[in-house]
Task: structure prediction
Amino acid sequence: MDYFVTGGTGFIGRFLVPRLLDRGGRVFLLVRPASLERVEALRGIWGAAPEQVIAVAGDLTRTRLGVKPAWVRGHQGQIAHFFHLAAIYDLQADAESQHLSNVEGTRQALALARALKVDCFHQVSSIAAAGLYEGVFSEDMFEEATGLEHPYFRTKHESEGLVRRSRGVPWRIYRPGMVVGDSRSGEMDKIDGPYYFFEALNTLSDRVPEGFPLLMHKAGLLNIVPVDYVVAAIDHLAHLPDHDRECFHITDPAGIRVGDVLRVLMRAAHGPRLTALDASLLDGASKWAEEGLSRLGPVRQLGEKMLARMGIPPQVMRYLNYPTEFDSRKTRALLEPAGIQCPPFESYAPVLWDYWKHYLRQGAPDRRRQLDGLFSRLVGKTSLAALRRRAQGKVVVVTGASSGIGRECALRLAQADARVLLVARSLEKLEDTLEEIHAFGGEAQAYTCDVADLRACDDLVRHILDDHDRVDILINNAGRSIRRSVRYSYDRFHDFERTMQLNYFGALRLILGFLPTMETQHSGQIINISSIGVLTSPPRFSAYVASKAALDAFSLCAAPEYARSNIDFTTIHMPLVRTPMIAPTSLYRAFPTLSPEQARDLVMKAIVERPKRLSTGLGVAGAVAQATLPGLSEALLSQAYELFPDSAAARGLSEEEAAALDEGGAPRSRLELAQRVFAGVLRGVHW
Result:
């Protein structure tokens, strides 16, 4: 089926369109003539061909959105779903602009949808359509909305009313809560909603010691939802049969009080420990303060100046005592069979904070290009449709598939209709992944193998080729990491042997085992999960980096030999990822890391684009520095070596003995601050 989308280049739209593409149809994007070139860039991010994503010139302010009549006539009856996302989502925008975009834009979108004779018009509204209603607002309520004086609330309510009263086209309405960044990557496009408080919290965390207790009021109940949950819900609900003329609350079923939002964010900022109080006396005081700001001129002006200094628009004050709760039981019942649930704010708040601090914060350096590949937006998240074109029907072997990156890769490849062969030491650990794949109709099979055992590797190759005749893609993901200074390794030569055995010899044994059939079929791809450490040479990782570097060197030498056989070797220099492999190192708990899902996206990008190397900007910069400024690089790495000590276990000490030895060094608070700054600047590097 085909789709027409307004606001497809906006924040929510950029996440929704790839899901629509995964369903196999075409997507027509309404784009202003001056922004047509943006569509080409988005196609690259989504992995879509020009015939899949088609730009349609238009404008929200014009009749039928300014789409040419000839284009409308040529596409009548061909478009199944019309998604209207284009609107102003900004409390600070002036009333005239909001009315023009939100109300008149919806009126013209409905007119265009009727002219195109679409099957359903999907209006992405907002919980703001309820105004400041006191109490529980259900999905069936609309006219009951109150407190619509603010133009944002009023225009969202009026635009929803236009849809409800429209004739000639079926409709569905979606009311998301306060939409924040992606719960996995933190990606967000602007400062809005809860983000207005981030700068004030950051200042407080810098000036008040970590863990210092502070009391604050819980205040009103907010409803915050991450964008990935919102688009997953809209995509699912839009394609369910027999739900036209219904409204859906895409909200957090529990909500979260303002004070708890600030408490959770302060914890993410490593600031003072906030204790949120829930007292009726404070409820009354905060309501009085809000009324004072809105009604008393001198008080309002003073309050606005104070808020402005903290980067908080005065309009945000109305949310401090937000009075509305949203009943989403009907929507949650429809989403439950698909496993779509809103994650609790506490689970992804640290990711939001991390993204804000490094990408959105005023004055923060533009590191989106400097650290290319660190977050899903930077690597250009590969759409399922693009992956399916490359992997459908292919036999893909994934080692280390019981958890972390390997598990995520296996699930994603199965969704793309690949025949996934999961490899791990224990079959029991693969059962959950197998069940999940089989539950959505994917094809997968599990094999046990300790990749460090070369005979076991030979048996694995033989069994797989007996069962499947070939392997199209081999993902060498299984690995072992050891973090220990050389001075503590004089009597631990076995550490180097074990690391080399798994990371190099085991992976090499599988490559040599599967290459002959790839050569016979004249196609194949070897993907080796290497490390950013090979490019940046961090101290304490001599065993680990040496083993990964050996596999990198083998691939560089072998690739030219197999180029004519259409066999590609791809090396991914992976930054630090939150996996069980780094769990024993407690120091990493405070470090910025990639999630397994973000690491998976790098691997999927490698499958679709088949590059020789896939590295982050920081990794490349490290390699260049090593080659051109070796003295400076060594000095920097030496400083890192002093900042990040060996663990107690690496030194052969108990935690108490290590703490006693470390007391003579820098004060703990200063040392931790230096560590955080160093790790923040050089994000993703293993220290």
Observations:
- The chain has two domains: 2-360, 379-681.
- The mean pLDDT is 82.
- The domain at 2-360 is CATH 3.40.50.720 (Rossmann fold).
- The first strand starts at residue 2 and ends at 6.
